[in-house]
Every structure is written in C-alpha cells, then in structure tokens.
Amino acid sequence: MLGTILILLGMFVIIAVFILSFISGVNRIQNGEKRDEHSLNSYSTSNYSSYSDDGYGSVSDKTDVKGGGLIMLGPIPIIIGSDSKSAQTLIILAIVLMVLYFLIFM
Length: 106
Description:
By secondary structure, the protein is of the alpha+beta class. Among the domains are: 1-35; 68-106. It is built from two helices and four strands; from the N terminus they run H-E-E-E-E-H. It has helices at 2-31, 84-105; strands at residues 50-51, 59-60, 68-73, 76-81. The longest helix is centred in the N-terminal third of the chain and has 30 residues, at 2-31. It starts with a helix and ends with a helix.
C-alpha cells in the first residue's frame, strides 16, 4: 500500500516538473526574453560591465566562475571541482553521504 502511494507520488512529481518546465519555456518565449549567449543569466553583459582599475576606463571581461560536481555510485564518490575550495566542500559532502549510506543500508 505505502509502496504504491510512493510510486504514484514519484510519477506525479516527474509529470509536474515536465509540465512546469514547458509552461516556463512558453512564458519566456511570450515575454520575449532573450538569453545572451556569453552570459549565465538573462541580462546583457553590457549593462552590468565593470571598469578596470587601470585608469583608462576600459571594460574588464574577466569573470571568475567556480564550481564542482559530486557523483555518488552507491557509497563511492566521484568528485569534480574547478578549484580546491569547491573540491574540499564536495569531499566533506561525500563523507557525510557515505556515512549516511552505511548507517541506513548496513
């Protein structure tokens, strides 16, 4: 009984995500929002450019993006990070998830 309810709830959540994603895409097209191909947000980078400190008022194109990813294959973590700070954070998260895995399934 509980298993059937959980399966139906999971299917409902998946279908709801697809419907909301479709509605969001249609809404974005209708509002005419365009995404700049060189930025990570929907705003143009020319509106939010910062000036460098060289005294000549030139526009700085330097961005600093950091991130990482954690893939758990059972209790085995695969960690991908662009810098050491991100990797260290993911290592701590991986250790916590491994401990939880062993506490729940062992």
